[in-house]
Structures are given as structure tokens and as C-alpha cells.
């Protein structure tokens, strides 16, 4: 059973703080993703990593960075948190696709971040 | 650019009634379409994909390339179908998904 875990379910931080959100998957997946989920806006991709130390910007990377030092772990970093980064953050993983095959993305439970 | 549109933010039906959640997409190539579902206090999970052409929990979805649609249907809604539903698109072979904004389905007793 694929397991994607996120370090915190709820997090409250202050404006300007550096924030780390951690995600770990135990299925040896190559791909990992960070999304934010906001009512009325759906899921928006922040960053994507397709291998260790490899990353690609998603649709809304501004104000975020990521780190993938190990295959199973993908960290999202808010360098200086702002109130407009208050959101639900979802991590996902998937195996690498081959040819035209698509592989399902498996999601973590989410971290609800509040920035005061 | 790829885009997924779910025109209804909220959809409310009675138990036993048919339900259709609409999804339209914009993509010039051959897309792969998916429906993901998030039940209350559960994680987001795949419901079905157009390639497999299967019925999951009584739901079906047909890809209509002429109308660029991938509507999700169920003939008789159940209360346990109440959830947030997201339509998503991928270019063939792409690792990434583009999600719609979601439709919250409520099935009333």
C-alpha cells in the first residue's frame, strides 16, 4: 500500500518566518509533487521533482523553493512566509511514466498552514 | 496551453437521483483525462481514468473529443458519494497533471 506522509497536519507560523514542509513516500517513486489547494481555485502545482536533486517549477513557484536530497523525501520551503501563503499543501508521488502510460499520483493527507 | 474547466462549484442532488459532474478541457493534442475524489477528512485519490474505460463505485466517464468533455456520471447517487471531485488532464506521457477547480457534490437523503 502506497504511503505518502507529511510531517504536520496543522502548522501556524508568523509572517516572515522560514517554513519547512516535509513529505516522505515509501514506494520508491521517482516523481514527487507539491500542490496547494484553495477553495474555488482547485489544486495548483507549485514544484515537481522527477529525480533526486532535480526539480521543475510548476504554475505558482513564486515565494517557494524545494529540496530533494533523497529519493523518498521532498521538502517545500517558504523562505519568508506571508499571509497569502495560508493554504492547504498537498504532497503527491508517482512512479515514472513509460511511453504513453500514465501512472497514478498518490497523495498525502495534507498540511494546513496558517500564516499570521 | 492546457486547461480544465469544471463549471459547477457546487452540485446538490437527492439520493437515488442521477448525477453528472461536468468537465471540459482545452488541449490540442491527445489528452489523458482523470477524475480524482476527496471524501471528507480523507486524502485525494484517483477515481477513474478514461483509458481504462471502467466503472468505479457506479461512476463512469466518457471522453468526448468532439465536445472536449469528460463528464462524470452515476445513474443513482448515494449519500456516500458526497465529496469533492476534481477533473484532471495530462498530456500523453507527461508526469504532470492539470486540475480543474473542483465540484463539491452533496447527496441529500
Task: Please specify the SSE layout and strand pairing.
The complex is a heterodimer of chains A (116) and B (109).
Chain A: E1 4-6, E2 10-13, E3 19-25, E4 31-38, E5 42-51, E6 54-57, E7 64-70, E8 73-78, E9 87-94, E10 106-107, E11 111-115
Parallel strand pairs in A: 2-11
Antiparallel strand pairs in A: 1-3, 3-8, 4-5, 4-9, 5-6, 7-8, 9-10, 9-11
Chain B: E1 3-5, E2 10-14, E3 19-21, E4 24-26, E5 31-38, E6 45-49, E7 60-61, E8 72-74, E9 83-91, E10 98-99, E11 103-108
User: How many individual helices of chain A?
Assistant: 0
Overall number of strands of chain A: 11
How big a fraction of the residues of chain B is strand? 35-45%
Which residue ranges of chain A are poorly predicted, with pLDDT under 50 across at least 5 consecutive positions? Answer: none
Q: Could you tell me which chain pair has the largest interface and how many residues each side has?
A: A-B, 29 and 23 residues
Q: What level of helicity do the residues of chain B show?
A: under 10%
User: What is the succession of H and E elements of chain A?
Assistant: EEEEEEEEEEE
pLDDT < 50 runs, ≥5 residues of chain B: none
Biggest β-sheet of chain B: count, sense, barrel? 6 strands, mixed
Topology of chain B as a string of helices (H) and strands (E): EEEEEEEEEEE
> Shape of chain B from CA axes?
globular
Strand content of chain A: over 45%
What's the story with the biggest beta sheet of chain A? 7 strands, mixed
Quaternary structure state of the chains depicted? heterodimer
